[in-house]
Amino acid sequence: MSGARRAGRFGGIALLVRRSLRQHAFSTVVTVASVALATGLTMALFAIQAQSEAAFTGGATAFDAVLGARGSQLQLVLNTVFHLETSPGNLPWSTYQAIRADPRVAEAIPYAVGDNYRGYRIVGTVAELFTRGEASRGLRFRMATGGRVFDSSSREAVVGSLVAERLGLHAGSTFHPFHGVVFDESARHDELYTVVGVLEPTHTPSDRVLWIPIEGVFRMAGHVLRGAGTEYQPREGAPIPDEAKEVSAVMLKLRSPQAGIALDQTINRQGKVATLAWPIGRVMSELLDKVGWMSRVLLAVAQLVVIVAAASILASLYNTMSARRRDFAILRALGAGRCTVLAAIVLESTAIAALGAVMGLLVHAAIVGAASALLRDRVGVVLDVMHVTAPVLATPVVVALLGAGAGIVPALRAYATDVASNLAPAA
Amino acid sequence: MAVLEVVDLRKGFRSPDGAVAPIVAVGAFALAAGEQVALHGGSGSGKTTFLHLLAGVLTADAGRIRVAGHDITALGEPARDRVRARHVGYVFQSFNLLQGFSALENVELAMRFGRGVDRPFAEALLARVGLADKLHHRPRQLSIGQQQRVAVARAVANRPELVLADEPTGSLDQRSARDAIELIRETCSEQGAALLVVSHDRGVLASFDDARSFDDLNHATRREPAAAAGS
Description:
The complex is a heterodimer. By secondary structure, chain A is α+β, with helices and mostly antiparallel strands. In chain A, 53% of the residues lie in helices and 14% in strands. Chain A contains 13 helices and 14 strands. In chain A, the strands form 3 sheets. In chain A, strands 1, 3, 4, 7, 8, 9, 10, 11, 13 and 14 form a 10-stranded mixed beta sheet that branches. Chain A has a two-stranded antiparallel sheet with strand order 2-12. The longest helix of chain A has 41 residues, at 280-320. In chain B, strand 4 and strand 5 (70-71) form a beta hairpin. The relative contact order of chain B is 0.20.
């Protein structure tokens, strides 16, 4: 009997909450929306922070190190792994041959950069990149059906999935390279390249690249080779002497971490001509550490927004309390206890916050989806949108608890409503 | 057995200057099961305060009130709330209903705090007061008289032993008032509830066999001139 009555009372409270939310529909919608935005924003910032860190420090490449001209390791990594920035300079072909022959090096792939097609970068390299290399750890490059790797001595290209999708390229398409890394209509090279293969999406910056044989970069009209210290202009049909050739960088897979330590010692500390960026993840995480305070500030702002949203629940409920005094008095006259009235208000604010938190999941999905698409477009790294971390999960729970807390102040006002004086006929 | 017994009830309000002004001082008052009594008195006579005390909404300074066998003057607030929910129906002058709720929901909400929801009974009560076709109307969509009828149905929803009505016809015209008072009286006798109406409306009082003056019952107001002279 008493259990049934308790159930009845709870049903009464739930009904009161539902009716009140409906009665104050406008305020409910506005408050729920502001809670949803705050929740979604906070969740998205947590998720983007964690995911972009993972994507920038780990997922972008399968190489361990980059060997390039003397200069900044960060510039080298940005240029060769993320295909951003400019190349710090070139290395003679002999350096590539030497590192390739080094027993500590498992794999060495040369890159020659400096051209683009409609803003997407062209990288000259060797066919081994596709036959032996990986796009990211454990993920081999795979050619979409009907494609093949370029022939090293032909004007052929293999293009990344994003370039193919954006520019409508497919096996058989042709294009002229443009000089420089920024698209300039007037800087067109005369050579015509034919696409022979489109790569499957790798979700790495490689998706934004057009790959051609490195020989093609050497022979591009207007390119001058200075590998030998003097300028050399390749001639049609004649082989290029090795000492004239240059590379922008050499991508390395090392046999062991000890190899990395040893190479770092010889190249960076004792050497004067080249820079070894190793390990690639460390170079990127140093950058992220430097700009990390920014995302921490953003996160703090988002958390403040959550508190503001909780405060808006408090304010919107508190403002209705005077208007609802008579309702509370009627409820009390019907036999509802003070605690029932108190519980109804706390439940109402909790319901608003919980609804907002649930809608926040949608906001979160929308923000992360948009950020992910933008990042994929601009940088090529792909965020793992479905990956859920503890702070992301905790956010809606904390929001619901804050909502419950926000209900306490107006609820105490309802609790204190004097029945007798509020039963008098309203003027 | 009496459903309501009042013995030596006293209630006063503290005025801003600190003096306690007596409002209610009733030596003895009782209602037998199913009995219907009207009390009349002018405004400020303390009759509303008297009803609030009987309903347990206000606490007495002294004296005893027994409602359906429960001495509510000995009970704490939560227990008084439960006695009110189970044993007392209340009809106010106007604006009795919760705005967000339909007629049926207003009746059922009272049941939730009392004996539990009994939808067929709630519908039967609303049909009894002539609102069978307005179960799902909101208060806004009902006339004042219709709202008052919902309040009557709600007052007996928990099959209370006692119904208290405070100027139940105060917002109605004369004809509606007569109809309303008839409806309250009939409904209470059908449901076996004793009825105590306070009103200053002579027309209302005329329909009761037992209409008493609250001023005769309440010693506080009779002493008021003396108290005023003394202060």
